[in-house]
Amino acid sequence: MPRLFAFSLAAILCLSQSLNATTPEDGREFTRAAGDNVAMPKQCQPGKTSAEALGWRWKRGTKVRIQYLQDNFTANEVAALSRAVNNWNAALAEIDSGVGFIVDEGEADNRTGPSILVQRGEPRGRDRVGELRLRSVFNGKVSLSLTISPVVTDLEALTSLMTHEIGHSLGLADCYECRRGTTAMAAFKSKNKGNEVFQPSDCDLHMVAAGYAIRAEPTGSLSRLDGRND
Question: pTM value?
């Protein structure tokens, strides 16, 4: 069984090209990772149980609207996707990023603030079940689109996929060599079975927290991640 890709590298290249000039001071919601040296918990082994960081993430304090394209998902599917959103929000409340996700039932509009539009469609690239891409930048407001393959209908797989893709928007890279069940960024088991992770792991949250840390701030807020239970 070939490993199933949940994310397209083209999205990162697209984001990098479009947002290369972004800095924390210029008002945009997406900003370059801080890249600080924060001690990693012992159980987090990059490439085995822990993903590494990408170059881009939502700016500190950003509130991101999650919008489901009308008639693309059943009520149960929306609930499964929103489960991942809620799990990330609960985890993010433990770190000093101020980033949060809000499920928006209104009509999709990328002009009113940072957002992720979630829709059904065929991701670009062979064997991909999901793809996160830059949708637009309007007055410095970044909008992304998440395309989910129609083959992903299992509710747990949808939660797993959404957890994975939100991780990308927070600066986490794919970890296809990581063991399933250890990180949200591991590969899918099959096209309709996820990676057995439905909320960010300790290591996922540690990497996100490290990305939002700045050298002028104490790192004490990161130490409590070592004892967090999944």
Answer: 0.80
